[in-house]
């Protein structure tokens, strides 16, 4: 039997949006990266919506992403490896709090780690 797409296994639009809300809340509470988010030009709600649109599009959940590329969004920020790992930890914490299974977590982490060169050190 064929496995459902990761988008569906994360709860579809509703589940993914709730996950993005948890992730952004974790970022604001994380002392390693909170100032990055507090000083962002976007509001908290805009950060949630942008992340939702990005991941919804990337995980084949339809909405077409209209934001900046990863490189353009992170250029000039000089994000460190430590900050990247800290953000990943926030994402894992959110997935655990929402009951996301290990298989889905591993699949999501693979996607996130593949994005690292487009985020860190730019």
Automatic annotation (TrEMBL):
Keywords: Heme, Iron, Metal-binding, Transport. The keyword Iron applies. InterPro entries: Globin-like_sf (IPR009050), Globin/Proto (IPR012292), Hemoglobin_trunc (IPR001486). Pfam families: Bac_globin. GO terms for molecular function: heme binding; metal ion binding; oxygen binding. Gene3D superfamilies: Globins. This is Unannotated protein.
């Amino acid at each position: 039997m064929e496995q459902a797409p990761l988008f569906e296994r994360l709860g579809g639009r509703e589940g993914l949006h709730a996950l993005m809300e948890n992730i952004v809340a974790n970022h604001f509470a994380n002392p390693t990266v909170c100032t990055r988010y507090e000083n962002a030009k976007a509001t908290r709600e805009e950060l949630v919506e942008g992340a939702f649109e990005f991941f919804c599009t990337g995980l084949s959940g339809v909405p077409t992403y209209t934001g900046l590329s990863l490189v353009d969004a992170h250029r000039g920020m000089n994000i460190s490896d430590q900050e990247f790992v800290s953000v990943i930890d926030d994402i894992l914490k959110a997935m655990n709090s929402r009951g996301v299974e290990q298989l889905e977590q591993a699949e999501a982490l693979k996607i996130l780690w593949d994005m690292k060169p487009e985020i860190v050190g730019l």
